[in-house]
Structure formats: C-alpha cells, structure tokens
C-alpha cells in the first residue's frame, strides 16, 4: 500500500470520528479505482452501492472512472492504475485502447490488485491476459477453446476441470443460494462461516477460461429445480497474475443482490486481500451471516458491515431450539380422513387406501419405491404426522421433492420411517446418489414399534429438523437439495417372496413458515 497525503488526511478523519469500528491495522483507507461505463447490467445503480460497500467505516476511498460509452472513442480513457492499491471492475463492454489494456496488464502483473464483480467476467472475451487474470469467464462466445469448466465434485471431494464442448456462461432463476467455503485457510474466507446464504442473485454456472493459478474459495450448488446446472459452481476465486492478486466474485447481479451481506462481506474482504495480500477485517460469526436466512447489509449507514446483518426473510421468528408447537396457529390439515384428495401417486404401484381416518400404503411385489405425493409444493414449513409401519418395511416422507421428467422418478430429502432398531428420523437423499444427509446417527430406537409415532419436521432455508415424539433426531444444513417441492408418502419396494407389508399415516398437518 502506498503512502500519500490524501490517505493520511483520511486516516486523521477516522481517528477523530466516533465511528471507529473496522479493525484495520492501519487506519489508511484502501485507495480504490472503480471502473464502470458499459455493462448489460444497471451499472449506474450498482456502482454507488459497490462504492458505499467499500467506503463504509472508512474502509476504502473509491474513485470512479467511467469509460466511454458504446461506440465512443476509447483513446482518452487512460486511468493511472498505478495510483491505486486495487482496481475494481463493474465494466462489461467494448475493448479499451491497446495502450490502456497494456497499462492494465503491467499494473496487475507488477503487483497491483484487481477485483472483478459479476458481469465484469463477461467482458473482453478476446483479451488473453484479461482472461488469465479472471481465471474463468462467461458468454461473449466463450467455449471449450477458452478453457475448462471448473467444478467441485462432492463425490470426489475435489475440483475437476472439464474440457467437454460447450458454451461458457449460464444462470437459472434468481433465488437465494448457499455458498460453501472450499478453502477456509485463505485470508478472505478464514473469517467467514463454513457455509452461508446469499440473497436472491444470479448463480453463474458453466464459466470457462484458462483457470491458471486459480484457487476457488467458495462454491454454490446450482439447482436444476430453478434452472441451474446441477453442479457446484465456483463463486469466489483468487487468481495470481504475475506478482498481482485478483479476487473474482460472480455475485452481484443487481442492487438487491448487492444488498446481500454475503456479497458485501466477500467484496470487502476480497478487495483488501487483492490490495494488500492480507485481510484485517473482523471475522464474521455464523449468527450474523449464517445458513438459516440470507442476511442483508446496510453499507450506506453502517460503520461495520459485518456487524449489521439483518434478516432478509419475512419470518425471523422461527425458534430452532424448540420442536414445532402443535398448539400454534396456522396448522392446516393435508388429509381429510376420508379421501386422497390433494394427493397423487408417483413412481411405483403400491396401493394407497383410506381406512378409519388413516392413509394405508400396501406393498406391491416387484414394484419400485412408490410415493403418494401432495399436489402442492411447500418450501418453508413445519410438518407433522403420525405413522405406524410394519416391522420389516422401510418407509419415509419426502419433503421438498421433485420427480424426473423422464420416468417420473421421485427424488429429494426423505424423512426416514423404520421400525426400531433403525434409522427412523434421519434424512436420506432419495434417488440422488448422495445417500444419508444426516451423517451422524447415534439414536436407533426413537421409533416405538407396533403403534403410531408422532413425527415433527421443520424445513426452513437449508435447515431441516426432525423430532419423533419429543426426541430430536436430525438437525442438519442441506445446501444441496432444493428448498421447494412436494411431499411424498413412501412405500418402499420389497424383496420377492416377502410382504405384503403396510404403513399407515394419520393427522397429517402443515404450517407455513414464510
Ligand atoms: Zn447478471
């Protein structure tokens, strides 16, 4: 970091103000150049937010350089990059002059810092050095000639480089998504929770590029249920370019996304690291930026963005410490006791009938797993039911589930039902190849055989909790499954020559937590 008079004056201002909350070891704000001027995103709205995020708490002093617009002469656009600790790009547009591009390459390769935000990685598809700086890019005609897709493979617990043919750049619907830290030893991520939610944003997928000297710090699962790739896509990356440091964030599609605490926190930490190679910002506790609800920051009036996370959810009153309260208001019955109205069968051929106010499922030899599924989808909810399963039969209740277009196979999280000793109350990922989502299963006898057992389930954000009676069995974070989908009462397939077995459900009720 270079020392100059203006930063000395700014440092003096910090020391004399009452808003010293940001733990920088030196009181000198980072000297940031923020580039905009063209973008297929609303850069005139987002630049002030990036600026406010970085300047909050006198963390940085931002100078904005606005490049000429589309078709305009670029010759005069020649910022003096070396005057700054770090350059942040909110620019996605036409090429700069050869001289300016060369100057930028020299600046970064000689030790300058660079931060690319969201669509800035769509820019300059033909500029070789730029693509090596950003590691991965999207759109602009990028394809297999530009480099691999880089993805985290959960089954192999590592990143793979996929050179298969195809375009670069993709995103599904804008939804909140869970970021998972893959390198917690890096200064940028060392102070962050292991996983945390970003508010609704574009989750970039299928980025491709040289990916040289690149370290992926965090990924997010791009959910096919919302138009995603089904891959764990890189979201936060660092790249070494010569002696320079690059921080790449794909977050930040619009103002709403940039209000996300995950965006703001990672941008500030990444910008400091790109500038100085270290992060002095305080660690962020999971209580502030966690995986239950996506938090927003308030950079314009917060002296410490990390400390001012507020819930973006409309329901922040969920008490995760207690089981769902059956006396609470808002419970709605999903079964009228007389008919299967509101339900449809998927997948197998097991029989479902209504008898004495219960839904009875009977196995059918040779059938795959069968599911009686709710016609409606549910995302954040509490669910309760009583169930009585024959010994020897495996059953369960699907939540937030989908069925495949081809073949109709039902998949998603399943709350296990099984006579004791067994895995009753644990959560299994049906038909996804993931196996058990609840990894630790110390309790094997919560289910009382030969009678109805009360289940209580809470699904909120990525958190899923299960009780049988008053015993808590599961309490997990599941960033990989969809957070919305149907319910399904499972009758498992059986071995030839066994059965028939029955499983009965009654008093099935749901309570909306949105
Ligand atoms: Zn976007």
From TrEMBL:
<feature type="region of interest" description="Disordered">
    <location>
        <begin position="290"/>
        <end position="321"/>
    </location>
</feature>
<feature type="compositionally biased region" description="Polar residues">
    <location>
        <begin position="310"/>
        <end position="319"/>
    </location>
</feature>
<dbReference type="InterPro" id="IPR010496">
    <property type="entry name" value="AL/BT2_dom"/>
</dbReference>
<dbReference type="InterPro" id="IPR029062">
    <property type="entry name" value="Class_I_gatase-like"/>
</dbReference>
<dbReference type="Pfam" id="PF06439">
    <property type="entry name" value="3keto-disac_hyd"/>
</dbReference>
<dbReference type="Pfam" id="PF06283">
    <property type="entry name" value="ThuA"/>
</dbReference>
<protein>
    <submittedName>
        <fullName>Secreted protein containing DUF1080</fullName>
    </submittedName>
</protein>
<dbReference type="GO" id="GO:0016787">
    <property type="term" value="F:hydrolase activity"/>
</dbReference>
<keyword id="KW-0732">Signal</keyword>
<feature type="signal peptide">
    <location>
        <begin position="1"/>
        <end position="23"/>
    </location>
</feature>
<feature type="domain" description="ThuA-like">
    <location>
        <begin position="32"/>
        <end position="274"/>
    </location>
</feature>
<dbReference type="InterPro" id="IPR029010">
    <property type="entry name" value="ThuA-like"/>
</dbReference>
<feature type="domain" description="3-keto-alpha-glucoside-1,2-lyase/3-keto-2-hydroxy-glucal hydratase">
    <location>
        <begin position="330"/>
        <end position="511"/>
    </location>
</feature>
């Amino acid at each position: 970091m270079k020392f100059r008079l203006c930063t000395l004056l700014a440092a003096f201002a910090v020391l004399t103000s009452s808003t010293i909350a940001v733990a920088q070891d030196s009181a000198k704000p980072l000297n940031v150049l923020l580039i905009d001027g063209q973008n297929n995103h609303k850069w005139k709205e987002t630049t002030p937010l990036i600026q406010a995020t970085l300047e909050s708490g006198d963390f940085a002093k931002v100078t904005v350089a606005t490049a000429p617009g589309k078709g305009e002469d670029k010759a005069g656009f020649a910022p003096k990059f070396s005057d700054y600790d770090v350059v942040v790009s909110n620019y996605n547009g036409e090429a700069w002059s050869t001289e300016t591009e060369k100057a930028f390459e020299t600046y970064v390769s000689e030790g300058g810092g660079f931060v690319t935000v969201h669509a800035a990685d769509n820019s300059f598809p033909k500029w070789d050095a730029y693509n090596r700086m950003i590691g991965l890019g999207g759109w602009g005609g990028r394809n297999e000639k530009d480099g691999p897709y880089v993805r985290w493979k959960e089954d192999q617990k590592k990143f793979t480089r996929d050179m298969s043919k195809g375009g670069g750049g993709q995103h599904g619907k804008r939804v909140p998504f869970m970021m998972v830290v893959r390198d917690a030893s890096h200064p940028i991520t060392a102070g962050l929770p292991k996983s945390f939610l970003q508010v609704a944003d574009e989750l970039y997928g299928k980025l491709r590029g040289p990916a040289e000297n690149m370290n992926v710090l965090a990924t997010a699962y791009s959910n096919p249920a919302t138009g995603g790739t089904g891959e764990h896509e890189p979201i936060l990356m660092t790249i070494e370019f010569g002696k320079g440091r690059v921080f790449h964030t794909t977050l930040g599609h619009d103002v709403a996304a940039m209000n996300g605490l995950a965006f703001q926190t990672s941008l500030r930490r990444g910008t400091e690291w790109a500038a100085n190679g270290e992060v002095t910002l305080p660690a962020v506790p999971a209580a502030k930026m966690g995986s239950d609800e996506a938090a927003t920051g308030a950079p314009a009036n917060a002296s410490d963005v990390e400390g001012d996370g507020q819930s973006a959810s409309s329901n922040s009153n969920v008490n995760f410490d207690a089981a769902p309260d059956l006396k609470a208001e808002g419970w709605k019955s999903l079964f009228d006791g007389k008919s299967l109205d509101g339900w449809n069968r998927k997948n197998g051929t097991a029989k479902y009938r209504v008898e004495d106010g219960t839904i009875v499922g009977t196995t059918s030899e040779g059938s795959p797993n069968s599911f009686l599924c709710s016609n409606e989808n549910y995302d954040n909810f509490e669910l309760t039911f009583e169930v009585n399963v024959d010994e020897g039969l495996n059953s369960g209740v699907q939540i937030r589930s989908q069925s495949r277009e081809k073949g109709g196979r039902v998949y998603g999280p399943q709350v296990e039902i099984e006579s004791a000793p067994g895995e009753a109350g644990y959560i299994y990922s049906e038909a996804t190849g993931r196996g058990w989502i609840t990894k630790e299963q110390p309790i094997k006898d919560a289910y009382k055989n030969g009678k109805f057992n009360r289940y209580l389930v809470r699904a909120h954000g990525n958190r899923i909790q299960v009780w049988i009676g008053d015993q808590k069995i599961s309490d997990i974070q599941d960033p990989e499954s969809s957070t919305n989908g149907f319910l399904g009462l499972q009758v498992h397939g059986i071995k030839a020559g066994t059965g028939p077995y029955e499983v009965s459900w009654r008093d099935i009720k749901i309570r909306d937590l949105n």
